[in-house]
Design a protein that fits this description.
- By secondary structure, the protein is α/β, with parallel strands linked by helices.
- The chain folds into two domains: 273 residues, ABC transporter transmembrane region fold; 227 residues, P-loop containing nucleotide triphosphate hydrolases (Rossmann fold, 3-Layer(aba) Sandwich), CATH 3.40.50.300.
- It is 62% helix and 9% strand.
- It contains 22 helices and ten strands.
- It has a six-stranded mixed beta sheet with strand order 6-7-8-3-9-10.
- Helix 7 packs antiparallel against helix 11 and helix 10 packs antiparallel against helix 11.
- The protein is elongated, with a radius of gyration of 36 Å.
- Belongs to the ABC transporter superfamily. Lipid exporter (TC 3.A.1.106) family.
């Protein structure tokens, strides 16, 4: 799978929007809880105002009771300061109560909607994106957005307002003292502008690299058997270490950028304090201000120091949140090319006639000079008919099977079900009529029952009807082994079913397709991992199931061809011949070549001795005797072995 676009270019942020405009896209998620967040911001602002009142109260205490020596007044003044401190603490507590629940609600809504979006986006999207990139956006980025909404946004707004209000109050004592604080803030604004440009690029690079690292972990865990079998654990570790080191270097660059802004955030207030102290002493000597006023000024400056110093951290936090928002909305803004039609057609009584009419398909990354992978497919499957699809590797068999259920859409022509273009059907209805079983069986971390009944949303999985459907499907797939599992059909299958053998996974995947009770069943070599005895039993059971079901089966074995009423030969993206097995043996040289290849592969797999005959390409037609022998060779592997032994 290729990497996502964002992981290939990790320098600039993908969004050209300004930071406020980029974050404004969160509005639909924030709107339902906006008043709770406003309440949190209001509580924080009240706490800040209370903190700013304390220097004013101290000024009155020093200029009044302290100078006069009235002990009782001093005590009341101390109680007033203590009361203000308690009020500030209560407001801080209220802020947390206001914002924590709505922030987690936003996180929940974003995660569920992003997951729903991933479910609706076409397979072509998932072909392009690394799973680790999607996982990091789902977990890391949305979690960061939640923390910013609950903490960063509220404090950024409140601290900016606190600085503005406090700066105005600084002018209350003398314009020179207030001007010193404003002038010393100018370098901070300049550094902040430069910081945004550098830090934004570093943040995007870091989050993309974290996604790549998550992909490496996921791939190594899923492929642990391969790595162990080939002794490539150290190689995987070396690759992971390089990626981790690259991420570490980026994080160090981020830390350097933050350290740079913190240097200025710490230096400039110190310079402001020093200049203010010198200026304050001079103003006192000139009689412009009193000592209590200078004391109150510095008390106010101390209160403002945390809001001023926090701006750098909160600003970088905001840029992190902006980058996370960009990454999440890259998925939300993806175009979904496979959607329900505006006015879907319904098939009241489906018959199961599947037809390909001039169907073309090419993958999105195909070169302009390359021909279509499927280059004008014309094929009709009659209701209840079983058709085998054969062809050499690369002829387009598997790709063809993805078109009926719209895993991909044709790029030309159309696919119809009972005469209706599948693009005119609602996806839910289409996938109710058409079920699939893949060669690479995928199971989920759920019970056997839930895996097999995955396609039966109409059933309560614990009902009697569900039990009957479950047992029928397991019988067809020869999956009686489930009863010997620790908890029978309630046994939880491990991740991707890797705790089961390949044949067991395939049988459960086949049972899942059978349990869906579709009118059309598409099977992409679903028996490849079965032993010859089990395969023969499954094929016999499938004959009964397929009696009234239209089936398209990709055949990689001669025995699979024997299931079919007719066979379609796929050659270089086109159906070049359709007929019974015997008819094609007589009339198609390429078909004879394909069957010979399948027989050789089957012989290698089973250890049987293949039927040796002359190269079919040297003869225009085989003799009747050759056709009869070839027809017999498409029986089960057991029959072949018995004939050889005889």
């Amino acid at each position: 799978m290729s990497s996502s676009p964002s992981s290939q270019n990790s320098s600039p942020p993908s969004s050209s929007l300004s930071t406020p405009a980029a974050l404004w896209r969160l509005k639909p998620f924030v709107k339902p809880v906006i008043w709770r967040l406003v309440g949190g911001a209001a509580s924080a602002l009240v706490a800040a105002i209370i903190a700013l009142m304390i220097p004013l109260v101290l000024e009155q205490i020093i200029s009044g009771p302290v100078r006069s020596g009235e002990f009782g007044a001093i005590a009341w003044g101390a109680l007033a300061v203590f009361g203000l401190a308690i009020g500030e603490a209560v407001m801080v507590w209220l802020r947390r109560q206001f914002v924590l629940n709505p922030a987690t609600e936003v996180e929940y809504q974003m995660r569920t909607q992003l997951y729903a979006r991933l479910q609706t986006l076409p397979v072509a999207f998932h072909d392009r994106w690394q799973s680790g990139q999607l996982l990091s956006r789902m977990m890391q980025d949305i979690g960061l957005i939640r923390r910013w909404l609950a903490f960063g946004l509220v404090l950024l707004v409140v601290n900016i307002l606190t600085i503005i209000i406090g700066s105005v109050l600084l002018f209350r004592w003398h314009w020179l003292l207030g001007a010193i604080f404003l002038v010393t803030a100018v370098p901070l604004w300049i550094r902040g502008y430069l910081f945004e440009k550098r830090y934004g690029a570093l943040t995007r690079r870091s989050q993309d690299q974290a996604g790549d690292l998550a992909t490496s972990v996921e791939e190594s865990v899923h492929g642990i058997r391969v790595l162990k079998a080939f002794g490539r654990g150290k190689h995987a570790l070396s690759r992971f270490s390089r990626q981790a080191e690259t991420l570490r270097e980026t994080e160090m660059s981020k830390a350097g950028a933050i350290a740079s802004i913190w240097f200025w955030l710490d230096l400039m207030p110190q310079i402001a304090f020093g200049l203010s102290l010198i200026s304050g002493i001079w103003l006192i000597s000139q009689g412009a201000i009193e000592v209590p006023e200078l004391f109150a000024f510095f008390a106010m400056a101390v209160v403002l120091r945390w809001p001023i110093e926090s701006i750098g951290f909160l600003f970088s936090f905001m840029l992190d949140a902006r980058t996370a928002t960009d990454r999440v909305f890259e998925i939300f803004s993806e175009t979904n090319s496979i959607t329900d039609p505006q006015n879907p057609v319904r098939i009241i009584e489906p018959r199961g006639e599947l037809a390909f009419e001039g169907a073309h398909f090419r993958y999105q990354d195909a070169g302009a000079s390359e021909r279509d992978l499927l280059d004008g497919i014309d094929l009709v499957l009659r209701p209840g008919e079983t058709m085998a699809l054969v062809g050499l590797t690369g002829s387009g068999k598997t790709t063809l099977t993805t078109l009926p259920a719209r895993l991909y859409d044709v790029t030309g022509g159309r696919v119809t079900l009972d005469g209706v273009d599948v693009r005119d059907l609602a996806l839910s209805e289409l996938r109710q009529h058409i079920a699939m079983a893949f060669e690479d069986a995928t199971l989920f971390s759920a019970s056997v029952r839930e895996n097999v009944l995955l396609g039966r949303a109409d059933l309560d999985v614990h009902s009697e009807e569900a039990e009957r459907v479950l047992r029928e499907a397991l019988d067809v797939a020869q999956a009686a082994f489930v009863d010997s599992l620790p908890d029978g059909v309630e046994t939880i299958i491990g991740e991707e079913g890797l705790s089961l053998s390949g044949g067991q996974r395939q049988r459960l995947a086949l049972a899942r397709a059978v349990a869906a009770k579709p009118k059309v069943l598409v099977l992409d070599d679903p028996l490849s991992a079965l032993d010859v005895d089990t395969e023969a039993l499954v094929e016999e059971a499938l004959r009964h199931v397929l009696a009234d079901t239209t089936a398209l089966i990709v055949a990689h074995r001669p025995s699979t061809v024997a299931l079919a009423d007719r066979v379609a030969l796929l050659e270089a993206g086109r159906v070049t011949a359709v007929g019974t097995h015997a008819e094609l043996l007589k009339t198609s040289r390429h078909y004879r070549h394909v069957i010979s290849s399948l027989e050789a592969e089957e012989a290698a797999r089973t250890g049987a001795i293949p039927v040796i005959r002359e190269d079919p390409d040297d003869d225009a037609e085989w003799s009747a005797e050759s056709v009869e022998r070839a027809g017999a060779s498409t029986g089960s592997a057991n029959q072949q072995e018995e004939e050889v032994q005889a």
